[in-house]
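WP5 quarterly update. Target: Ethylmalonyl-CoA decarboxylase. Source organism: Mastacembelus armatus. Length: 311 aa.
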Amino acid sequence: MVLCALRQQLLKSSSGCGAWSRLLRRQSHDCVYSSIHGFNLQEVRAKLQAFPGGSIDLLKQDSGIAVLTINNPSRMNALSGSMMVDLEEKVSQLENWTDGKGLIVQGAAETFCSGSDLSAVRAISNPQDGLKMCMFMQNALTRLLRLPLISVALVEGRALGGGAELSTACDFRLMASNSVIQFVHKHMGLVPGWGGAARLVRIVGSQNALKLLSGALKVDPELGLQIGLTDGVLQVPQTEVGAETLLQQATNWLNDYTKGPAPVIQAVKKVVVSGRELPLSEALRTEKDVFGTVWGSPANLQALASKSKHK
Ligand SMILES: CC[C@H](C(=O)O)C(=O)SCCNC(=O)CCNC(=O)[C@H](O)C(C)(C)COP(=O)(O)OP(=O)(O)OC[C@H]1O[C@@H](n2cnc3c(N)ncnc32)[C@H](O)[C@@H]1OP(=O)(O)O
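Structure tokens (predicted):
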């Protein structure tokens, strides 16, 4: 699927060999680990499938905003092995969603995610299996963060361990007034392994990241706002009647950033991802390539024809 997307991009591109080599490089950026790192995707998938339970549910809406729900309420939405595989499959579907603009990641039953399912963790507590799971989840969460969609983690209740890491694989985090994000890894004799530490440093800076990880601090919405882990606070509705649900509040928040045609929103996300991840010269070349996909596009021509003013 990745190759297919690359081929389409290449066809759109006008600059021949240079573009091809850049696109090939970009292919290797899609996943952090591949067979050259000794990572055997099919083998890891099969191993993870041996730990079933729960599901990851994807709802793609006509509005261009999809909702991804971590669904394993009897275990506080802990991620079983099969849910990890399910998550990776849902990310693949979103990578190919041409009409998509935004994504909300939420937990079922009023809590976000309590990390990996401890029964699976116990069964694969040897270093080899742990590293395979780590590489699989780094790949999946890196691809989640790189989706050409503006993504928001709607954190309600608790985001613990791997759940806290998952929240950092979205562009933004909105915290319900009752919620807590906690990197509990130290208490488990661990450090984050799903890319959560690397992303956390980029979100809150190394000083704050060090405090959160070494103190296993509970981040409530107030602390989240103070250190920049949280982008907004949502009020938990007190009554069923008339009150906006957290999902509606998150959708309204996201609407401000996803108004407009999907190709333009996707292009915005792509230039930000390349600016965030690539060395400057490479990011500039990618920005030029992405610019080429929107320059003279229907949205651009329509805006020019309407002589729009930006008062
Ligand atoms: C550390 C890194 C690693 C990774 O990155 O891969 C991880 O993520 S390991 C997992 C880290 N998370 C935890 O250690 C969470 C442990 N659970 C708790 O602290 C509590 O259960 C809590 C705070 C989430 C909820 O507490 P509460 O009192 O509200 O409810 P219960 O404890 O009764 O939980 C209900 C039910 O859910 C089960 N549960 C909760 N979390 C997990 C989990 N991560 N894996 C498996 N099962 C989990 C809990 O055992 C209860 O089940 P029950 O059968 O009713 O005993």
